[in-house]
Amino acid sequence: MTNKTPPSIIALDGPAASGKSTLGQSLADSLGYLFFDTGIMYRAVTWIALQHDLNLKDEAVITELAQKAQIDIRPPSMKDGRSCDVVIEDRDVTWEMRGGDVDANVSVVSAYAGVRKALSEQQRRIGMRGKVVMVGRDIGTVVLPEADLKIYLDASAEERAKRRYDELIARGEKADYEEILRKVIQRDRIDSTRAVAPLRPADDAVIIDSDKMNAKQVFDHVLGLCK
Ligand code: DC
């Protein structure tokens, strides 16, 4: 059996609800690496903007917010499916940040060049230390183009909407499949057509279509690429 060193910087990109966080977390746990979900940063900026009633259409205001935002990531304080606590202004916003209001506005915020510059500089600084699994949309293309392994995890919009629906139901929340599907498609469109750092696989990414695979199969496949 060959025993090569696992890749130190792993970039994991893909559309909304393709299973990136689940895969990224298990991969990081199994390799003893840091798991860093960069979507949290875009969501956090969006949450603060909504909380303070800032004009989301004002790119300068939102960019300044992204440059100054204090986002605190802490080890999970509860076993409710979270991978970390996200604390903003002394408030635990871990789940609120995943709610409908943020979902509906985060694509607009993350399309601003100034916002992306501010947040991706921080992401790059953390990622370049190595031993990291970084999850997002542009990690392999923009944030860490030198990543040792790039994965692009894809699935059909229908499958991703179904997974999001099942997650919400499992957490005891209300969910409407058709509405979720509509929003997944809308978010894909905005994320992949924006001018700056659009969602797309890096030329050297391994593309995985997880439609007919469960989380364990995807994990085993990617772990095999690492070892
Ligand atoms: O992965 P997520 O659904 O939590 O991401 C939320 C939004 O943030 C998503 O609509 C796209 C954006 N995002 C991005 O543009 N670049 C990243 N590296 C991560 C997320």
Summarize the helices and strands and which ones pair or pack:
Elements: E1 9-13, H1 20-31, E2 34-37, H2 39-51, H3 59-68, E3 72-74, E4 85-88, E5 91-92, H4 100-109, H5 113-127, E6 132-136, H6 139-143, E7 149-154, H7 157-170, H8 177-193, E8 206-209, H9 215-226
Helix pairs in contact: 1-9, 2-4, 3-5, 4-8, 7-8
Bound molecules: 2'-deoxycytidine-5'-monophosphate (DC).
Provide a concise account of the structure shown.
The chain has 227 residues and is α/β, with parallel strands linked by helices.
Describe the structure.
With 227 residues, this protein is an alpha/beta fold. The chain has nine helices and eight strands. It has a five-stranded parallel sheet, sandwiched between helices. It has a three-stranded antiparallel sheet with strand order 3-4-5, covered by helices on one side. A hairpin with a 2-residue loop joins strand 4 and strand 5. Helix 4 runs parallel beside helix 8. It is globular, with a radius of gyration of 17 Å. The mean pLDDT is 93. It binds 2'-deoxycytidine-5'-monophosphate.
Distinctive features:
single chain, 227 residues, Rossmann fold, five-stranded parallel beta sheet, 9 helices, globular
Overall number of strands:
8
| CATH architectural group of the largest domain | 3-Layer(aba) Sandwich
Task: Provide the helix percentage.
Answer: 40-55%
From N to C, what is the helix and strand string? Answer: EHEHHEEEHHEHEHHEH
Q: Number of folding domains? A: 2
CATH homologous superfamily of the largest domain?
P-loop containing nucleotide triphosphate hydrolases
